[in-house]
Amino acid sequence: MTKGNIYKLLQEEHIKYELTEHEALFSMDVLYDGELPHPESLAKNLFVRDKKKRCIALITVKGDKRVDLNAFSLRQGLKRLSFSTAEMLDEIMHLKPGSVTPFGLLSEDAERVDFYIDEDFIGGIIGIHPCDNTATVWMNTDDLLQLLAARGHHAHITKIDRKED
What we know:
Strands 4-2-3-5-8 form a 5-stranded mixed sheet. The chain has a 3-stranded antiparallel sheet with strand order 1-7-6. The chain is α/β, with parallel strands linked by helices and 165 residues long. The protein has a single domain (3-25, 38-158), classed as YbaK protein (Alpha-Beta Complex), CATH 3.90.960. The protein has helices at 3-12, 69-76, 86-93, 141-149, and strands spanning 17-21, 43-50, 56-62, 81-83, 113-118, 125-128, 135-140, 155-158. 21% of the residues lie in helices and 26% in strands.
């Protein structure tokens, strides 16, 4: 899926969204200098896998959270998770590092990916990349979850605690 495909899909599905264009962002540590319309709703997306690559997951959390993958794995009853490679991200979600997004689940190769979303997003809005890190789409989280579910990607809504430094 391209950025244009995402916009077209949202329009075809009559999903309301707000768009913020910006410089390419590669991490949450380097937010662009402009004003974000909803900074508290910005998502951080982690593409992870277990050692044997049997469990592949996308974890979406509030941008200001650090995730303890060991604690998350235990809570979800999963084998120990670690970050995936750029090659695996490209192969499965057709995304590049810095552009990870729940919209990547719309890739036809992403059926292997389990989607976990922080319960803090439910009932509010979420800011995610449209498969390209030069823009952020702000939309109702419920609309995102319904869009993904209609295409076979049901979210595991879970409590994700902040990792203590």
